[in-house]
């Protein structure tokens, strides 16, 4: 919760400063500086840490001043500067910290200064500093990961790529062991940021190596790290269920008060406090302690050949370049797509165009919006897919994007339009589903939430494809309790409801039911998870990308809980398009078609390939 932490600490430092409580003010600033390093703002972090050091020095707090100087020095190294004088400064600061008994802080300073020595090509100095650091058993994980990263950088500087990669693997293994001790998806995702530097170093080494099998290994190791932690069902928690129901009631009260023009501040404050209690309780859920190894490219290729499919995996690497690894059953390529910033520029207005295009606008305005959206999608498709277009034609496509592309509506891109497309959390998990047991879909449950045009028509038409195997919940029957009960007994779950993605608290993203939102946290309480989930709701295919490029949202919550495939949209959905496309998709699902094929066939038959942003997440084929 970095943004919340930043706001709280910044406000605290201002209040403490006004009251002239300089020691506490400086301590707050030091925490803020560390947060800024975590948010990849090293220049701002250095400025704040130096200010904290001056305040500490003014009070004669020498140990605290040394700690602040250490953070400022670490931030300076992260800015990428080359300054030989920093080596002597680091040795002096480390000496002060050791004299105060702050051995972990001293170790961090020495390791950061070793990185500067490597940058200055002073490899003997770098080796000496790395060897001088002896991590104790109680050393913070952050220090241990930093040591692995510095050792990898030193090995790379001496052209020993194999040892460098092993140091990165060892560091990420430590992170995963820690990560797997937590059962909370929210917390697992947050912890990934601690391995960001290591993962980036692994990708750099892999791209320099150039072999597709090495690049594939590191795209899997560096991305979606929670996908390698085996999920575990949380313990039964009646108190948690009661809190979620209370939160639903608060949301209903907020909506009613807002509609009547009554103040909602107190209700919103109560809802926020309750959300925090629910989050904190989930943080204590035990993890599985099991971490799987990523699949190899040799293991993946036969499965791609079996489906005549193609994998497209994008990676953003050091130096701001975007690359794509493409693999079929008998060919692999790694292609440089150019500057990543160029693609980010195209993406900036995409979400707004997608959302506006789903609205019911006057025809002249609709035409303008669609033209803008069409141009943007065509440009994006050219940048991301045109260089490998010859391998895509007529094949089912497995898209494994980098974090910044996680919300891309791939099925709308011209080069993929009409093709069966699926976006798994990782290629390793997709492969695991291929080797898993094939469970036929026998029971389907359909839910229509309130205030959605054509929702009742949509679920009834979709349920008709399943005959007696389909059941429908509508109106007041579509409550959280009833939906949870049906979901736990279904192979296929389809919910047509208003959905909202909560960027600040992704697992509080929700589907609007008769008695309020059905949250991501509710999914964890299901004793059985449907294999296929269809979310006919705005925004719930969207994911928040955490600071370690870890996507999390309601689709990810379903997949993490055990769903094989989620059909959802990363943008707002036109109710008419949703009704037609998804009702037609169920005809294919009921006939035994794989989800990505059923969705692609329905979209093409209806001629809505340029308007439907629905896509499959997980193992859609």
Task: Please provide a written account of the structure.
This protein is of the alpha/beta class. Helix content is 54%, strand content 11%. The protein has 25 helices and 16 strands. The protein has an eleven-stranded mixed β-sheet, sandwiched between helices. Strands 9-10-11 form a three-stranded antiparallel β-sheet. Helix 3 (42-58) runs antiparallel to helix 4 and helix 8 runs parallel beside helix 11 (196-209). The longest helix has 23 residues, at 238-260. The radius of gyration is 26 Å and the shape is globular.
Keywords:
alpha/beta; 16 strands
Outline the secondary-structure elements.
Blueprint: H1 2-18, H2 22-38, H3 42-58, H4 62-78, H5 85-99, H6 103-119, H7 123-132, H8 141-157, H9 161-179, H10 185-191, H11 196-209, H12 212-222, H13 238-260, H14 265-283, H15 297-307, E1 310-317, E2 321-327, E3 332-339, H16 340-347, H17 350-357, H18 363-384, E4 397-400, E5 421-423, H19 427-435, E6 444-448, H20 455-464, E7 470-473, H21 480-487, E8 492-496, E9 499-500, E10 510-513, E11 516-519, H22 520-523, E12 532-536, E13 544-545, E14 551-552, H23 554-561, E15 565-568, H24 575-590, H25 595-605, E16 615-618
């Amino acid at each position: 919760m970095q943004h919340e932490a930043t706001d709280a600490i910044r406000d605290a430092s201002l209040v403490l400063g006004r009251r002239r409580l300089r020691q506490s003010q400086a301590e707050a600033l030091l925490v803020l500086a560390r947060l800024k390093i975590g948010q990849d703002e090293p220049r701002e972090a250095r400025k704040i840490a130096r200010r904290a050091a001056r305040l500490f020095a003014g009070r004669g707090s020498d140990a605290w001043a040394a700690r602040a100087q250490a953070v400022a020095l670490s931030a300076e190294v992260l800015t990428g500067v080359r300054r030989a004088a920093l080596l002597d400064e680091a040795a002096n600061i480390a000496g002060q910290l050791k004299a105060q008994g702050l051995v972990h802080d001293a170790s961090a300073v020495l390791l950061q200064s070793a990185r500067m020595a490597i940058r200055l090509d002073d490899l003997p100095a770098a080796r000496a500093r790395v060897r001088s650091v002896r991590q104790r058993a109680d050393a913070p994980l952050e220090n241990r990961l930093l040591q692995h990263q510095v050792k990898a950088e030193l090995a790379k500087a001496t052209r020993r790529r194999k040892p460098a990669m092993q140091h990165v693997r060892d560091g990420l293994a430590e992170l995963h062991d820690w990560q797997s001790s937590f059962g909370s998806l929210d917390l697992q995702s947050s912890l990934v940021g601690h391995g960001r530097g290591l993962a980036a170093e692994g990708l750099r080494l892999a791209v320099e190596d150039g072999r597709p099998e090495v690049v594939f290994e590191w795209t899997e190791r560096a991305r979606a790290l929670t996908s390698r932690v085996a999920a575990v069902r949380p313990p039964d928690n009646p108190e948690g269920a009661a809190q979620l129901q209370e939160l639903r009631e608060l949301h209903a009260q907020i909506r009613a008060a807002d509609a009547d023009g009554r103040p909602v501040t107190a209700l919103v404050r109560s809802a926020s406090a309750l959300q925090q209690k629910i989050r904190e309780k989930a943080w204590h859920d035990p993890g599985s302690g099991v971490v799987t190894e990523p699949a190899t490219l040799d293991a993946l290729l036969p499965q791609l050949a079996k489906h005549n499919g193609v994998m497209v995996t994008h990676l953003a690497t050091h130096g701001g370049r975007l690359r794509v690894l493409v693999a079929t059953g008998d060919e692999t390529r790694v292609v440089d797509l150019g500057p990543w910033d160029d693609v980010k520029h195209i993406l900036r207005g995409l979400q707004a165009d997608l959302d506006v295009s789903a609205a019911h606008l006057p025809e002249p305005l609709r035409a303008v919006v669609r033209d803008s959206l069409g141009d943007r999608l065509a440009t994006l498709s050219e940048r991301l897919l045109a260089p490998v277009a010859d391998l895509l034609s007529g094949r089912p496509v497995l898209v494994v994007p980098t974090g910044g592309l996680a919300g891309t509506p791939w099925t709308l891109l011209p080069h993929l339009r009409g093709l069966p497309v699926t976006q798994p959390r990782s290629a390793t998990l997709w492969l695991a589903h291929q080797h898993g047991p094939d469970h036929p879909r026998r029971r389907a449950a359909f839910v229509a939430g309130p205030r959605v045009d054509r929702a009742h028509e949509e679920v009834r038409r979709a349920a008709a494809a399943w005959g007696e195997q389909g059941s429908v919940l509508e109106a007041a029957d579509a409550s959280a309790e009833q939906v949870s009960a049906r979901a736990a007994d279904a192979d296929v779950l389809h919910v047509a409801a208003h959905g909202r993605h909560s960027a600040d608290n992704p697992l509080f993203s929700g589907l609007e039911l008769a008695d309020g939102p059905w949250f991501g946290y509710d999914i964890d309480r299901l004793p059985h998870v449907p294999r296929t989930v269809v979310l006919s709701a705005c925004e719930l295919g969207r994911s928040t990308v955490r600071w370690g490029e870890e996507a999390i949202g309601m689709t990810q919550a379903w997949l993490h809980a055990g769903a094989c495939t989620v059909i959802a949209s990363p943008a707002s959905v036109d109710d008419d398009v949703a009704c037609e496309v998804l009702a037609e998709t169920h005809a294919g699902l009921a006939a035994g078609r794989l989800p990505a094929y059923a969705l692609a066939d329905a979209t093409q038959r209806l001629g809505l390939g340029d308007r439907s942003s629905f896509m499959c997440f997980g193992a859609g084929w």
